[in-house]
């Protein structure tokens, strides 16, 4: 299922998706190097990696070229999941997205070239589509106007990877994720609502009008989607893009209702108003994932179940 | 014709397109600040600016935030033409495009925000389309796979500008140029061929198979196109993209024939082979420019005339 991957380095491997991917690769018999600077990554997510004979952990930054080149030794594949994932506050630190997403990807690609590692799976985002005219949005949607610095930096990183495929014979598979939910979920609306309701179950403030429609995917399905796509692109020079999401959307208010019910809360919901929660928020995210489904992949968990599983995980791990 | 522009700062204003734009704006009664680090810009292109009462020149780098903020004082519009324009050798210095195109644009936007200057015309490139499926290629072509680091860095800069329009109420007009020809042309295939034929008129080496089809636009038409589009977007928060080119293509071999004939040369042409001149070269560039034409703009000079005018300028200024 992991194709020809024998030893994989995962940047951001101590994070939510990264640590789930690490556990899955180890279970598949793949050697794993978790590479993380632990700015947001968590040691407690790496219990499985640290206790596995095939698991390695390197605490270092992607911008530390020396550490990176050493860690890449013997690897055949990189899953690049490290990123500044703070979409919402991008405008407050306008250089951060470019530096931590675009430039870091460029540095990583150079280190890979030096180390002779030429396969990368890259975690991009559905936010590259800005506010698309076409919904569900396919991978070859009309070239969008970016609405967030996060989206702009992800487009830059995608483009840099593709130029390496074209110019240096790299294999690059880009994953444009919807929001991911599940075990080890650490930031996003579910945790915000969960904490707010745990603090005060009687009321809840929701950014925007609550009718923003979003897609969520369970992290196990996300990892399976990544491995399915990687296995389909073994050739040097291959550059491919896959949307990774479900066929469903839920409104923010629906999501609130699911969370509140699980917690036995009946909050008065106060909307801040406007069709976007913040500048750059997309009022509607629904990706056309037929390209990935055509490879035999499909999500196993419906969205409401993914939300519930996330809440349950937060209950025992908060 | 320059819309509401009263005082414009032009990054890269001592370069080919920038200095032509500066002269045109001054002729239109606009105050002009040429901002250039003179790494490739030329003093001799600024005779008109230096002798004009409304013309200012600041020698500084776009990454010099202090100089930039001072130079922006009193300006209402920025034309951002500074760039690393070395498309062909991008793979030899993989960080340069991101730094000099994407990061520099980000720094400039921040300086503009501090200075309260919120209108930018940005010189992007048709190379953002990679190798498009759709030709002539419209602005909303299917989201492409990037084939050059230059294209990836321009997409990043475009996206950053658009995020500033969305988040900070900037007005951003993006120009996706074809190759530009005319007076003060300083790099590209015409000068390469011109120099080679002046050195040895009996033979000429051409990268690729010579059948790459390109579009060229005369610099006067390019400047007119920029001003036309800027005038059409006065509103804060406006983000627009315009292709700027002609309806024609010429093959590289055609271009060689025009240049050789003008120089009275009959070279034996040797092709290095392959449908691309270099990795990231696009075998066919033809942009759909109906959006800009709908504003009343159209090129005045056919491609062959633009090539000849360039050769004639090189003859008297080489």
Structure description:
The structure is a homodimer of 318-residue chains. The first copy, chain A, is an alpha/beta fold and 318 residues long. Chain A folds into two domains: 7-180 and 217-244, NAD(P)-binding Rossmann-like Domain (Rossmann fold), CATH 3.40.50.720; 183-214 and 247-285 and 300-317, UDP-galactose 4-epimerase, domain 1 (Alpha-Beta Complex). Helix content of chain A is 37%, strand content 18%. The first copy, chain A, has helices at 16-27, 47-50, 65-72, 96-115, 149-168, 189-199, 219-231, 252-262, 290-293, 303-317; strands at residues 7-11, 31-36, 55-59, 77-80, 119-125, 171-177, 179-181, 203-206, 213-214, 216-218, 239-244, 250-251, 268-271. In chain A, the strands form four sheets. In chain A, strands 3-2-1-4-5-6-11 form a seven-stranded parallel β-sheet, with helices on both faces. In chain A, helix 3 crosses helix 4. The first copy, chain A, is globular. Chains A and B meet through helix 4 and helix 5 of A and helix 4 and helix 5 of B.
């Amino acid at each position: 299922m992991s194709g020809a991957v024998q030893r994989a380095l995962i940047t951001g491997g101590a994070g939510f998706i990264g640590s789930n991917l690490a556990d899955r690769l180890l279970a598949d018999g793949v050697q794993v190097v978790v590479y993380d600077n632990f700015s947001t990554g968590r040691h407690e997510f790496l219990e499985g990696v640290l206790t596995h004979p095939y698991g390695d952990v390197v605490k270092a930054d992607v911008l530390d070229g020396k550490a990176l080149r050493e860690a890449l030794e013997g690897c055949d594949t990189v899953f690049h999941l490290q990123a500044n994932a703070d979409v919402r506050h991008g405008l407050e630190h306008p250089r951060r997205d470019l530096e931590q997403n675009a430039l870091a990807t460029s540095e990583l690609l150079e280190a890979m070239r030096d180390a002779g590692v030429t396969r990368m799976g890259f975690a991009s985002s559905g936010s590259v589509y800005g506010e698309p005219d076409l919904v569900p949005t396919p991978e070859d949607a009309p070239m969008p106007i970016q609405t967030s610095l996060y989206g702009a930096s992800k487009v830059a990183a995608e483009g840099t990877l593709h130029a390496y495929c074209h110019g240096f014979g790299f294999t690059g598979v880009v994953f444009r994720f919807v929001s991911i939910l599940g075990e080890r979920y650490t930031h996003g609306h579910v945790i915000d609502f969960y904490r707010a309701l745990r603090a005060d179950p009687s009321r809840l403030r929701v950014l925007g009008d609550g009718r923003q429609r979003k897609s969520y995917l369970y992290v196990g399905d996300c990892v399976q989607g990544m491995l399915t796509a990687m296995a389909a692109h073994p050739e040097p020079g291959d550059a491919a893009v896959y949307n990774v999401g479900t066929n469903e959307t839920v409104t923010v208010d629906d999501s609130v209702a699911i969370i509140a019910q699980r917690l036995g809360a009946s909050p008065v919901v106060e909307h801040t108003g406007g069709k976007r929660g913040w500048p750059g928020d997309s009022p509607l995210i629904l990706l056309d994932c037929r390209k990935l489904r055509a490879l035999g992949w499909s999500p196993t968990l419906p969205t409401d179940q993914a939300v519930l599983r996330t809440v349950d995980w937060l209950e025992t791990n908060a």
